[in-house]
Amino acid sequence: MAFAPKIITCLIVLTVYMLPPTESTIQCGTVTCTLAQCVNYLVNSGPLPSACCVGVKTLYQMAHTTPDRKQVCECLKVAGKEIKGLNTDLVASLPTTCGVSVPYPISFSTNCDNISTAV
After folding, report:
1. What does pTM read for this prediction?
2. Beta strands in 34-107, from DSSP E residues, in sequence order
3. Would you call 119 helix, strand, or coil by DSSP?
4. What does the pLDDT look like over 1-54, one tens digit per residue?
5. What DSSP string runs through 13-35?
6. Helix, strand, coil shares of the chain as percentages rounded to 5?
7. What is the DSSP letter of 9?
8. Please, are residues 58 and 72 in contact by the beta-carbon 8 Å criterion?
9. What is the CA angle 108-111-116, rounded to 5?
10. 3-state SS record for the chain
11. Angle CA 73–71–104, to nearest 5
12. CA geometry: angle at 30 spanning 85 and 67, to 5°?
């Protein structure tokens, strides 16, 4: 019978580790730095720097969990509001232009709370 409490303890520990994270590990500074190469393009149009798409793809790969994706969304909305002259059409099409499929619109009106990892 002494074996049963050990099994129960192991099951509890496994259950806790299998739960999805509730907080993001991505910081807004990381989001803005990763996409810094995109700002000139998103304001002035012109040629899209390859470093911008590298940043878009890197950020997409970093945001594995629902909390991460929600955090990225919130960070982008805050950062975007600070950039004067931002072309919202270019912003909305940036993931597609860089070959990344995002299952929600990239817009200031996007409700970040509705974002999940479901595709």
Report:
1. 0.76
2. none
3. coil
4. 454 444 444 344 434 444 444 577 899 999 999 999 999 999 998 899 999 999
5. HHHHHHSPPSS----HHHHHHHT
6. 65, 0, 35
7. H
8. no
9. 125
10. CCHHHHHHHHHHHHHHHHCCCCCCCCCHHHHHHHCHHHHHHHHHCCCCCHHHHHHHHHHHHHCCCHHHHHHHHHHHHHHHHHCCCCCHHHHHHHHHHCCCCCCCCCCCCCCHHHCCCCC
11. 35
12. 100
3-state secondary structure at position 63? coil
Tokens in use for 11? 């099951």
Give 9's contacts (C-beta < 8 A, 6+ positions apart): none
Two tokens, residue 72:
């990225």
Residue 113 corresponds to which tokens in the numbers above? 């709370």
Structure tokens, 17: 């580790």
